[in-house]
Amino acid sequence: MKVRIVVLAKQVPDPETPPSQFKIDESSNSVITPNGVPPVVNGFDLNAVEAALLLKDSDADVEITVLSVGSDFVMDAMKKPLAMGADRLVLVADELLDKLDSSATVKLLAAAIQKDGPFDLILGGRQASDWDQAHVTLGLSEVLGLPLVSLVKKLEINGDSVSLQRLIPDGYQAITAPIPAVLTVTNELGEPRYPNLRGIMQASRKKPEIFSLDDLGLSPEDLTPKLELKKLYVPESNKQVELIEGEDEADSGKKLALRLREEKLI
Amino acid sequence: MTTVLLVAERDEQGEISQTTLQAVAAANGLTEAQVTIAFAGEAPSSAGSLAAEKVVTLSAIDASDSGIYEQATADVAAFAASMNPDVVMFNKSDFGSIVSARLAFRTDSALAADCIGISNADGAVSVTRPVYGGSALAEFEIRSTPAIVTLRAGAYEPSTETGSPSVEAADSTESVEQRAQVTDTVAEARDGVRLEDANFVVSGGRGLGGPEAFHVLTDLASVLGGAVGASRAACDAGWIDHSHQVGLTGKSVSPDVYIAVGISGASQHMAGCSSSRAIVAINKDSTSNIFKEARFGVVGDWEKILPSFIATVRELKA
Ligand SMILES: Cc1cc2nc3c(=O)[nH]c(=O)nc-3n(C[C@H](O)[C@H](O)[C@H](O)COP(=O)(O)OP(=O)(O)OC[C@H]3O[C@@H](n4cnc5c(N)ncnc54)[C@H](O)[C@@H]3O)c2cc1C
Q1: Residue B191 pLDDT more than 80?
Q2: Tens digit of each residue's pLDDT (9 = 90 or more) over A113-145
Q3: Above 80 in pLDDT, residue A44?
Q4: What is the extent of the structural domain holding A266?
Q5: SS3 B309
Q6: % pLDDT > 90, chain A
């Protein structure tokens, strides 16, 4: 029996941008993408793609759809999951969708999933590296009325249920959930695989399927944000480091300890 | 008047958690705040002197709901519906993150996670939260009621105010069907102090070069009576268990001294340790971001610096 998996993926500014290059345009409350640093698919979403691919590795009859909502999609970035081995890319693309809050994003994703589904598993990354809210996939489970397990680091399908390991602060929980289910995947699952040449060729030939707001029966009024961004800024840091310099590195180590004692820190 | 429902948590000893006391301070900082504090299960006796109008107890969380929190959400949602608060406040814990998100989307309410500040004026609630991995701060005005928020650990000083709230049990809610089932919990054995509670944290990063070096850090941590932390890069490399990860997606620590060895100081790492009293950096690259965050630093190779540092600390402690 065919297993249909949808993986939610978001295009984000590259989170590995060095702090010195991270700049904000305070007049428009948005991040200025440094020249030559292209956007990427949110890293945790690639962990979710990897989770789906691991299932596909052991069962050829798995179909993986990658779903994203937004605007200004950069295909080199968004096609990466396809190059890794996903089957389809569905984009809800509209100029109006550049500043969504999580409530609007969930509405759009839920509508797209209802239109393109049914799916057996809905996977998302544990959070997006731009707004760091970690809400969308959790919220989607509520709106779709499906069971939710977050922070999954291992998963296996057994007929009509999934066996999962869920990350907790000091270890993990073993959980079984009925299918269909909504899961968030954490990086402890393992590194996402690198696309190989064949994958890259196949991805370059695939065209994304595009849904508009109209296709989903939604209007801009449905997407009114519940949170209004008033100000976005880089906090000032006025910390001044005191560098400890000895005659050599060993001496510096000793002086550091003495200095910390002097400050009554140890 | 601003009515606040604060969903409390207890620590390993069953006492009111420090993060809940921080939330009590945040809640009472709102103008004309009227605070109700809800506990899952029995309230600890110290709850009777919290700075609040009222303490309520909801039904206890059953172990098989832990991590899923379907029943916990139903309990909080039922109480919130009866109280109709302006703000529902949680900690950004496993429990708080999940229950807050479930509640917000179940009731189509506004949600802001991991806030470091909350205020209100003219009936509108505003929050400040780190975004882009901590590289930036964002201020939001919340446009619907209730405003559901989670608070970052360490953002507020724990409340020391006292009060004499009434303590009562909430009406019991129906039990919900548990779809996902927890069948087992596997916890890492821990020796020594909990990372989150440690006064000294010694953390290692990619610059340590391998798992062996963590023995040196463990040695230093035990001399100081502290705990060992790590960057995500070190955890992902498999050098140390993920339960040691400090940062945005790891643990939040606020020790007296945070010693970062071979860690570059990425914003996502600093998100978990920037409320430490003093950060000490040992890194061979003087341009590394960690030196912009640290109070004391040594530029150099940790392999040459740590042995004499540890030896001197040991002497001083003797
Ligand atoms: C959404 C998101 C969430 C994240 N969450 C977290 C998180 O929770 N926690 C976290 O830590 N990271 C997190 N990260 C990753 C973070 O961005 C960094 O990639 C990571 O913290 C880097 O780890 P590091 O400092 O150990 O490695 P690097 O950045 O590679 O730094 C290694 C450092 O070691 C120094 N070094 C090398 N050799 C020596 C030597 N012999 N002696 C002394 N110094 C030496 C180098 O100069 C360098 O500064 C997250 C990233 C994203 C995108």
Answers
A1: no
A2: 999 999 999 999 999 999 999 999 999 999 999
A3: yes
A4: 236-266
A5: helix
A6: 89
Residue B206 Cβ inside 6 Å of ligand 1? The answer reads yes
Taking an 8 Å cut-off on Cβ atoms, the answer to whether B243 and A235 are in contact is no
Closest of B226, B78, B268, B25 to residue A22, by C-alpha: B268
- Give the Å distance between the CA of A255 and the centre of ligand 1: 26
Residues A244 and A175 in one domain: no
How far is the alpha carbon of B90 from chain A, nearest alpha carbon, in Å? 14
Helix (H, G, I), strand (E, B) or coil at B229: strand
- Pocket residue to mutate for ligand 1, from B114, B217, B263, B309, most atoms within 8 A of Cβ: B263
Whether the complex's predicted ipTM surpasses the cut of 0.90: yes
- Same domain as A166, residue A254: no
Amino acid letter at A49?
Answer: V
Give the three-class secondary structure for B197.
Answer: helix
Non-local CB neighbours of A58 within 8 Å, separated by 6+ positions: none
Percentages of chain B per state (helix, strand, coil), in multiples of 5: 30, 30, 40
Specify the pLDDT at position B253: 94
Q: What is the dihedral of CA B265, B270, B274, B277, to 10 degrees?
A: -40
Q: Are B121 and B232 found together in one domain?
A: no
Q: Do A138 and A252 belong together in one domain?
A: no
What pLDDT does B113 receive?
A: 97
**Which of ligand 1's atoms lies nearest the C-alpha of B272?**
8
User: Are residues B149 and B294 located together in one domain of the fold?
Assistant: no
pTM of the model: 0.95
**Cβ(B75)–Cβ(A174) under 8 Å?**
no
Q: Flag whether A229 is in a domain.
A: no
Per-residue model confidence (pLDDT) at position A20 = 80
Query: B217 and B121 share a domain?
Result: no
Whether B174 is in a domain gets the answer no
Question: Which backbone phi and psi does B83 adopt, to 5 degrees?
Answer: -95, -30
Say yes or no: A116 and A11 in one domain: yes
From chain B, the residues in CB contact with A45 under 8 A are none
Same domain? For B204 and B271 the reply is yes
pLDDT band at residue B318 using 50, 70 and 90 as cut-offs: confident
Instruction: Give pLDDT, residue A34.
Output: 82
Q: Is B174 on the interface with A (CB under 8 A)?
A: no
Question: Is the beta carbon of B244 within 6 A of some atom in ligand 1?
Answer: no
- Rounded distance between C-alpha atoms, residue A15 and residue B249, angstroms: 14
Q: Which amino acid is at B25?
A: A
Packed helices B302-317 and B213-224: angle between N→C axes, nearest 10 degrees: 20
A228 contact residues in B (CB cutoff 8 A): 140-143
